[in-house]
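Q: What does the predicted 3D structure of 4Fe-4S ferredoxin look like?
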Amino acid sequence: MKRKIVNIDEELCDGCGQCVPSCAEGAIQVIDGKARLISEVYCDGLGACLGECPQGAITIEEREAEDFDESAVKRHMSQQIHEQAKVTVNKQDHVHEGIPTMCPSARLMDLGRSEKKPASKVSASDAGISELKHWPVKLRLVPPQAPFLKDADLMLIADCVPFAFPDLHRTFLTDRSVIIGCPKFDDHDNDLERLTAILNTANLRSLTVVHMEVPCCFGYWNLCQQALKDSGKNIPFKQVIIGIRGGIKTG
């Protein structure tokens, strides 16, 4: 049938991968340094990836193409998660290899551990030390089987929090794993499915949600409650609310 579908100009594409996470159906992957439509049946033709391409290499065209197949997409995304679980650790550079070539920003990485100091001995020059131990951090990019989630104390943090609360690293990230996102602009159903899968897979020790005091941000509190209910997990669960002028309001 003739329908609208994504077209990628390989001459313009530089393989940056920014279009990959914007495609909720997983229809685009970076292969041999170029973004490519891996199957017509995965592309719904809505063009969510269009605005993500800095080179303008992606357009929507109308041509003969296979029908969009939602059930095929679900099977494909399930397989993607399964494939991402097949990781091994390259101890030399702390990079988890073996996952399929998708978005470069989704490559699993162990960033190591910074040298810890007692709080009383932390100087002003230490304020820039990062406590982030892994990559990626976006909820939609973190596979449930990621090694850094196993037996972790997990922080789910709304992505506005670091701008209001500058001491985020020392206060919340030390010896913890972190995932971030936006409860207002991210897809709630996808986030719920991913967080529930993490709870079912990772054997978390605890879950803490950190969000702003603005109403939309409470969506993460509700998301966590629903994910815990759906997974049937009973683990320590805490809410921390950050004020828009900085400081911890609750938690």
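A (community wiki): The structure tokens above were generated from the sequence. Residues 2-76 form a domain with the Alpha-Beta Plaits fold (CATH 3.30.70.20). Helices lie at 70-84, 161-164, 168-173, 188-202, 219-231.
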